[in-house]
Amino acid sequence: MISQALIKDSNAVKRMGIEALTEKLGPIGMIEFMRQFDSGYGDYTKERHAWLDNVTVEEISNETKNMTDTFSYFLEECPCIGLRGFFINTQKEFHNDEN
User: Fold this and answer.
1) In which domain, by residue range, is 67 found?
2) pTM above threshold 0.70
């Protein structure tokens, strides 16, 4: 159990918490757990406007189609992928719905 004196020392609490997480989850699990609480940096809303304000719906649609076509080609050429048929059929249904 942690003593009252250690609770007042935030660095000690942080160290003990990281040690406990590492012991229970392993080093990678501890890092993944800690990432959930990282708020990042910068102003996402401002940055998003810089990226998207001049992009049209048509450009997004074309890029999505290009990505789908590329992915479909990859699946056709790599039969080792287990979900190959599912993705190809889904893609065909998606493009048929557009017409």
Assistant:
1) 44-98
2) no
Q: How many domains, the chain?
A: 2
Whether 56 and 73 map to the same domain: the answer is yes
What tens digit of pLDDT does each residue of 27-65 get? 999 999 988 887 778 888 888 888 888 989 999 888 888
Examine the domain organization and report whether 52 and 15 are in the same domain: no
Can you tell me which residue has the tokens 């998606």? Answer: 94
Contacts of 71 (CB under 8 A, 6+ apart): 87, 91
Angle, vertex CA 64, rays to CA 85 and CA 45, nearest 5: 130
Give the torsion through C-alpha atoms of 78, 84, 87, 92, to 10 deg. Answer: 80
What phi and psi, each to the nearest 5 degrees, are found at residue 79? Answer: -65, -5
State how far the Cα of 85 lies from the Cα of 7, in Å rounded to an integer: 56
Same domain for 30 and 49, yes or no, is: no
Q: Is the Cβ–Cβ distance between 84 and 78 less than 8 Å?
A: yes
